[in-house]
Design brief:
about 170 residues; alpha+beta; seven-stranded mixed β-sheet
Amino acid sequence: MKKASVLVLLLMLGNFNAFAQYEEDVKSIDSITEALYASISGEKGVERDWDRFKNLFIPEAYLMPTGVTQEGEVVYRRWGIDEYIERVDKSFLENGFLEVEISKEVDQFRNIAHVFTTYESRRTKDGDIIARGINSVQLFYDDNRWWIVSVFWSPESPDHQIPAEYLGDS
């Protein structure tokens, strides 16, 4: 019984140490949103640091894109962290994908925060913009660090342009 407890403790410490390198990512609202964009971004052929990405989220977190079907129906999808990685990893690696924040609005009360972060996406650093939109990021602070609870986003479309107040100085 004691050996099993020691083994579990060692495994937990090993996992903690694996994520210790990402400690700066979760110290502030700005650092966690910067790390979110950085962890999914990279040129063609560059593998993403999915451990860094996973470290940003509570285990039960969801990533939820919205969109419009060919039939005009407004829909959303809901993916867990691992499901999101499975869906995007190959495409990001084969095509490149870089996303940057161009504006941010933050509301916070006690240990919760909502970040409305406007993004631009490209395939290469100097490439054409392939998408713009807004990420709605919900955060939780546990008196130790920030955690992403969910990321809910909507891309810009010709019929639904991003309002000027969410474009910052860009």
